Amino acid sequence: MVFNPGLVDIPSLDGLGQIGGRLGIVDNGALTSLTGLEGVAAVGDWLIVQRNDALVSVSGLKGLKSVTGSPRSTITTPWSIFWLESLASVSGSVSIGYNAALASLAGLGSLTAVGGDITIGEDTIEWNALCNSTEDNPNLGSLAGMNPKTIGGSLRVRCQTGLVDIDAFHATGFIGGDIEIALNPALGLMGLGGSAGDLTSMGDASALRVLACKGGPLTQADYSEILVKVVTGDAPLFEFEAAECL
Q: Which of 8, 18, 125, 218 is most buried, taking the most CB atoms under 10 A from its CB?
């Protein structure tokens, strides 16, 4: 369902329990509800809900338990994700960005396994690129509500002006890819690894150095503490020289 300016609601699909391919709900400016999709428990490829300006809730997806798409598949949330409370696993990636009114991630507590990346904010190839917008989840002060135990890909948190902690990742024991935390001016590192956290393995933490350069309180001591329990991957302890902050 893409670019249907006159679409206000979705006809009842009560008998539909599984979608073998993709479910995309994008650019439907008048769509106010996802009612009609309550019976969908599984999506076989990817799910994306994005740029539906009148949509304030995804309550129609409250029965969704799994998304088993490719490693590059993405869930992009609209303004309220409260009704994704049944979602337990995503084989692909989860992206949460550009939601002007989003203040809470309550409803994602059942999501314990993500096969791909988790991206909060801007998703960019260049981890040290400047932010494109200051309106990227500006009201999201905490990631409480998420509880991932494993992340198969990378963890990226970028350009979140209101975010003050990432305690939601305190129980995360495995991150298979990179950790990229950048350009979050109020963010502390409580909850991410260190001696009190559960993180025991990650692929690459080198991008953490950007916190010492652009909008973050990271110090060499903080960085060392986070890496105490890391057992795999490329995680050099950078000396924070001025040249690295350009």
A: 218
**Using one digit for the tens of pLDDT, what is the confidence trace for 35-91?**
889 899 998 887 877 777 787 677 788 888 888 865 444 455 444 455 677 888 888
Q: Which residue is listed with tokens 């650019």?
A: 27
Please state the three-class secondary structure of the chain as a single string.
CECCCCCCCCCCCCCCCEECCCEEEECCCCCCCCCCCCCCCEECCCEEEECCCCCCCCHHHCCCCEECCCCCCEEECCCCCCCCCCCCEECCEEEECCCCCCCCCCCCCCCCEECCCEEEECCCCCCCCCCCCCCCCCCCCECECECCCEECCCEEEECCCCCCECHHHCCCCEEEEEEEEECCCCCCCCCCCCCCCCCCEEEECHHHHHHHCCCCCCCHHHHHHHHHHCCCCECCCCCCCHHHHC
Closest Cα partner for 148 from 119, 183, 190, 123?
119
d(CA 125, CA 147): 26
User: Which residues 6+ apart lie within 8 Å of 125 measured at CB?
Assistant: none
CA angle in degrees (0–180, nearest 5) for 79-70-24: 40
The whole model's pTM is what?
Answer: 0.70
Give me 154's structure tokens: 């990378």
CA distance 160 to 25: 25
